UniProtKB/TrEMBL annotation:
Residues 352-462 form the MHD2 domain. PANTHER family: ELONGATION FACTOR TS (DUF810), PROTEIN UNC-13 HOMOLOG. InterPro entries: Munc13_1 (IPR014770), Munc13_dom-2 (IPR014772), PATROL1_C (IPR057984), unc-13_homologue (IPR008528). This is MHD1 domain-containing protein. Residues 81-224 form the MHD1 domain. It holds the Pfam family TPR_PATROL1.
Length: 521
């Protein structure tokens, strides 16, 4: 009775059954070695491949136990990995004994090996690690969804000018990499690409979700009004107030930007994407260090960068910065400063509604942007604001609606205004480089001389350009050239628009006769 009680207590105090299989693998290996060294040389008198038969039998017996264990595994644990690694080592040892014992066999021992179905221990480990990776990636994606919904893209609320959620997601990725390399597995280099791919997709998802709803340059550009011809200056001046009010209302209706995505909020997103780009470079260097310290790494694992770099998320950051930088520029110019640009510049009498109010507001915005945006992307953002300003200036001149008219003499102060606009970005040498300013001002510089040309010259250039574009089909009647938005001094639509806004009787008669354009919308 006492023996039975003692047996039951011993049973209850047995160690976890998982490592028992690892111990069993070691015992089977030792038994196989003894079989080869002690018994097989004697048994060879009756069977030429006694050792091979013995290890094949041991392989099958242990394989049956291992199979039941693998079917019971639900998650990756150190004990499970320990058992599978022990099984893998045992299998290699048994196969080696069988091969050595079958050297003189006609088939080289293939028949014996066929009786030893593979344990596939490494495959089982790999599958468990892949499940572990999937679980981590799924959790990270859920975290991104949850935290981006709560993110406040506010530079005052976010120290450093970037989102705390980005710092946290990078910390989680760092911890996940640490945890992966701490796994007691023999194949870190082989499975690292799976982990990197998942982390890469999560970061791309973060960037995509963070910029969702922020709009782009096309979100803020107003719809061009229909073409009209100029009425007399006197009639236009009397109708100035009515036309201006109508235009303001239409601009409010066509502005598609959501106020929850203001300029400062867009700037914090830009800073955030830049922060992620920078941190990814450090993470990639750290991954190489972790890989070098891994016992399973070999020299060839460092021969290329495949599977050790973030492939799609850096590109997503670059694309996101580009999109949001353009959105900042076009939102400032066409949305925030619409009252002083689209609804104010050259309305009515051009000499009384020049560019100074727009420049004053623009300068305030540039100061705020310069103090908010990360210095590594600051030049790009300011350059995009400049591009949007130049585009807005041209749009006022070529598609500003019937509330704007220009005489040939107005060309001088138009050119002076454009010079003042460029000077804002030059800032006496403290702003953008002059070559950048000249690069983006090319289109405006090419188009402005058209406003100095006399009406007869413009009409002749328009006829010639249209005939060159449409050929003989345009001889009987000049077709109305479509609006491409690609302004060019030799492009028919650009020339036509200069005529439409020319405060000149000859221009008005030509447009009436050729296209029957109305004087008002």
């Amino acid at each position: 009775m006492e023996k039975a009680d003692s047996s039951r207590r011993a049973s209850r105090n047995q160690p976890n059954p998982l490592p028992v299989l690892a111990i069993l693998a070691k015992d089977v290996g030792e038994l196989a070695s003894k079989e080869k060294e002690i018994f097989s040389p004697i048994l060879k008198r009756w069977h030429p491949f006694a050792a091979g038969v013995a290890v094949a039998t041991l392989h099958v017996c242990y394989g049956n136990e291992l199979k039941q264990f693998v079917m019971s595994i639900t998650e990756l644990t150190p004990d499970a990995v320990q058992i599978l690694r022990a099984a893998d080592k045992l299998e290699k040892d048994l196969v080696q004994i069988a091969v050595e014992d079958s050297v003189d066999c006609d088939d080289g021992g293939k028949a014996i090996i066929r009786e030893m179905p593979p344990f596939e221990a490494e495959g089982a480990i790999a599958n468990m690690v892949k499940d572990w990776i999937k679980m981590r990636i799924d959790r990270l994606k859920e975290w991104v969804d949850r935290n981006l919904q709560q993110e406040v893209w506010n530079p005052q609320a976010n120290e450093g000018g970037f989102a705390p959620s980005a710092v946290e997601v990078l910390r989680i990725i760092d911890e996940t990499l640490d945890a992966f390399f701490l796994l007691p597995i023999p194949m870190h280099p082989a499975l690292l690409p799976d982990l990197m791919s998942g982390l890469d997709r999560c970061l791309q998802y973060y960037v995509s979700k963070a910029k969702s709803g922020c709009g782009s340059r096309n979100t803020y550009v107003p719809t061009m009004p229909a073409l009209t011809r100029c009425t007399t200056a006197t009639k236009l001046w009397k109708k100035k107030d009515k036309t201006l009010n109508t235009k303001r209302n239409s601009q409010v209706a066509t502005a598609n930007g959501d106020d929850s995505f203001g300029v400062l909020q867009l700037c914090v997103r830009i800073n955030t994407f830049q922060r992620i780009r920078t941190e990814l470079e450090f993470l990639e260097k750290r991954i190489i260090t972790l890989l070098r310290n891994s016992e399973s790494a070999h020299v060839e694992d460092f021969s290329n960068g495949l599977g050790k770099k973030f492939e799609i998320s850096p590109a997503a950051c670059v694309e996101g910065i580009q999109q949001l930088s353009e959105a900042v520029g076009y939102r400032i110019v066409f949305h925030d400063l619409s009252p002083v640009l689209w609804d104010g510049l050259y309305i009515g009498e051009p000499s009384s509604s020049r560019i100074e109010p727009f420049l004053q507001e623009l300068e305030k915005n540039l100061t705020i942007i310069s103090n908010t945006v990360n210095e590594r992307v600051r030049t790009r953002v300011i350059a995009d604001i400049m591009r949007a300003s130049f585009a807005g200036f041209l749009l006022v001149l070529l598609a500003g609606g019937p509330s704007r008219i220009f005489t040939q003499q107005d060309s001088q102060f138009i050119e002076d205004d454009f010079k003042s606009l460029k000077d804002i970005f030059w800032a006496n040498g403290d702003g953008l480089p002059m070559d950048v300013i000249n690069k983006y001002s090319t289109t405006v510089r090419d188009v402005l001389p058209l406003f100095r040309s006399d009406t007869e010259n413009l009409i002749e250039r328009f006829r010639r350009s249209t005939l060159e574009t449409y050929g003989s089909s345009a001889k009987s009647r000049l077709p109305l050239p479509p609006t491409s938005g690609q302004w060019n001094p030799t492009e028919p639509n650009t020339l036509l628009r200069v005529l439409c806004y020319r405060n000149d009787e000859a221009a008005s008669k030509f447009l009436k006769k050729t296209y029957n354009l109305p004087k008002k919308l």
